[in-house]
Amino acid sequence: MLPVATKIELTACFIHCHNKACFDTVIFYLISVIATNTARFNTFWNSTPHGASWPTRTNIYYEWLLTHGTTSVSCGYKFVENDKRGHAEDYLIEHVSPLIDNLHANGILPSFNTTASAMSSVTTSAMAITQDKTAKIKMYTNYSPCSTCSDKLINFISLYKIQNIRVEFEIIVASPYKCMRASCFYCSKPNNLRNLKIYADNAKGSRKLMATPGVILRGFVLADWLYLASKLCIAMSLYNYDVKIQGGLGVPDHFDPQGCVRRDSRHEADNATLLDFTAIQNLPFI
Predict the structure, then answer these.
(1) pLDDT tens digits for 72-83?
(2) Which range marks the domain in which residue 249 is found?
(3) Most Cβ neighbours (<10 Å): which of 72, 93, 99, 190?
């Protein structure tokens, strides 16, 4: 199933197609969209917790929503990735910040007023209707934010908190990024421990995110894969959640505690991520 925007674009193209060259252009566009989204989904799928080498690409698919009580309204979505200029999280903040500012400027996302008790009952009642509105960013990423990006996301939330604007993040992670993890400590081939300070700092960053009010940091579960696949127009029937991930370009070998090569299934990788995030909260050096 294609996203609504893509469907509209393709429908408009087909309506105005009067020759083979135009039709070929539409088909080429459709194929390029499918190829791009498949590559993006594979980056998520192949980012596993026990990689001997770390991929250089971080992909983020995120949606921004306006929540009011138990109701959430989607305000749009976007896909970003890292490049030489910056990290994917930098582009997310760069894009979302003016959207929140615009919602606030137009009164759609009002500040919550901490002096409500001093106002009239009518004003207080009106405020109660609007003050629980929250800008929520639901962020799917193949790797957890590095220590620097963790601080940037926390500072982003704090900046709006100072203005009495509620901003929340739900960060759904396919795998922890370069973190010292319980699974590393017992590995007889500790490829993941090349730089202890960087890895410890990234673990600290994840823990700080977990401790930040308004932030949920968790691993993928099957429902998240199904949702992401639907958004990227991917047929999940082509992916088996419980079959071992086969080696290949961009798919690293994995090592069990005895040093034997293994390849996790996506299901096993997700379970390991869940356990690793739990362990990160309790690591002694944090």
Answers:
(1) 888 888 999 999
(2) 4-280
(3) 93
Evaluate if residue 155 carries a pLDDT over 90: yes
- Tokens in use for 136? 């929520």
Domain membership flag for residue 35: yes
Total structural domains within the chain? 1
Contact 20, 248 (CB under 8 A): no
Kindly give the interhelix angle for 88-105 and 147-162, rounded to the nearest 10 degrees.
10
Q: What is the pLDDT of residues 159-195, one digit of tens each?
A: 999 999 999 999 999 988 877 555 555 444 444 444 5
Q: For residue 285, is it within any domain? A: no
Which residue reads 């960060």 in tokens? Answer: 171
How many Å apart are CA 119 and CA 131, to the nearest integer?
14
Q: Is residue 38 part of a domain?
A: yes
Q: DSSP for 119-136, please give it.
A: S-HHHHHHHHHHTTEEEE
CATH number of the structural domain spanning residue 166: 3.40.140.10
Looking at residue 94, its pLDDT comes to 94
Model confidence over 211-270: pLDDT tens digits? 999 999 999 999 999 999 999 989 998 898 988 765 443 444 444 444 444 557 888 888
Give the contacts of 63 (CB within 8 A, at least 6 positions apart): 74, 75, 76, 77, 137, 138
C-alpha span between 286 and 122 (Å, rounded): 48
Q: pTM of this prediction?
A: 0.78
pLDDT band at 121 (very low <50, low <70, confident <90, very high): very low
